[in-house]
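pasting for the record
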Amino acid sequence: MFVSACSTLPLTAAQREIWIAEQRLGKGNRVFRVGEYLEIDGQVDPALFEQALLLVVADVDALHVRFVEERGEVRQVVRELGDWSLSRVDLSAEPDPEQAARRWLDTAVARPMDLAEDRLFEYALLRLGTDRFYWYQGYHHAVMDAFGSLLITRRVADVYSALVQGRPVAPSPFGSLSDLLDAEQEYRDSERFTDDRAYWTERFADRPEPTEIVGRPSTTPERYLRHTTGVEPTELDELRASARRARVPWSYLVIAATAVYLHRTTGASTVILGLPVTARLNQVQRRTPGTASNVLPLRLALRPDTTLGELLGRIGERVLELGRHQGYRAEDLQRDLDLPAHVGTWYAPVVNVMSFDYAVSFAGLSTTAHSLSSGLVGDLTFAVWDRRDGTGLTVDLNAHPEICSDHELATHHRRLLTVLRAVKTMAPAEPIGRIDLLTDEERAALLTVPDDIPQATETTLPGLFEARVGASADALAVVCDGSGLTYRELDERANRLAHLFVARGVGPEDVVALALPRSTDLVVALLAVLKAGAAYLPLDPEYPPARLAHMLADARPAL
């Protein structure tokens, strides 16, 4: 530990945002748990492993803190950890050790951690057999992110290897918690912070609406849905080869596939993805375990005739810009733009491509890493893990259970992978509109008409409404803010307005824009447009002017 015990320090910006979010959710919520396990092939010495772990944890300031409120301000107190030990769990006698290990891991990562009372990390060594072990790491996200966890993993592997081989343990390379705080304050006092703020507020001054394919959650659940699959090393090699031909990092193909999927699924010509970044701006931050990660919006314009090469070029420009301005917190941007608070981020889905060198070994024993939880999801997160260990890719799709079922999640996951595989084989000059989202089975199901399908009646919506007027003319049809209209009154008002529309030349194939608040007048106007034979375009008067202008330019209404 580099910071003296009992020292009281301010929170980093990332910690403060997690603290605020957790206070809204209440104690006992487990969504801010971060966890993974490392599969170790070979015989591990548990005593030496624990010795290595104790040495490493002693040098990680972030693991020594608890959070306190002092005079209305939240701070972190560095404390002595006292006696703690590595949990050793022997599952080798279980009928199915791997299944037993999965149950143990699921239970462990689901346990909440109290920022004010609990130790904010936990480790366990699970023995599945003589030469098979799982090392579990669990943290509260307020003290550790995925990058920080990787730093700890590498250091424990190095120290364990030295102990097994009888070599001296090299000095710790880690920076201190004070170093992280100093680096952050230096950034916030710099011109770079001012420039970053100007960049983000200008780029999103029109407060664009997020592109949603599963809706937006209203609550934070106790758990998230996850669908996981693997991509074989041969496919990863093909993905990398395709990226080399296009002269871009392979992660750009993942981003492109996600953007295309949103565009094709929603029809949106502008998509906004959340892109996680390490937000570690200097060498001190890059060698100090802790939490600093940030999720920033990546805005892309695309049309069916946009070529893959054009899209990759735009992604390259935007990602480079985002990287130059990654120190600015997404939460600060949300406040700058006066956007409503949402669960997770205000843009979704999040595309998280994690390509870290996990090819670590413990005294020659090979390892494979597996993610268990990465913190708050929001509505949808597409996570692609490249451990660079020769095992290919792990592809997760995480979703909020309030807005997505297991079946829907599996469908989105399958189609995202379909688009990724299509992007992998496309020529840069091909338009993205040619990408097929459906499998052969799905297309056959859509094109096949069942024999017992009921026949549609020869009527229209205005016709159905008029039949209702004839049957219940004096019944109440619509109520809003204490006033209402009967079916007869609604029909008469809608007819008068429809005649006005027709007199203005409105008819079939036309669009009429309606900028009205939620009211009886809006219902009258909607019905009148349909009676005139046209289609309506509802415009929310609360939308930013730039968004309204875009909608009008895109729809080109007749009135």
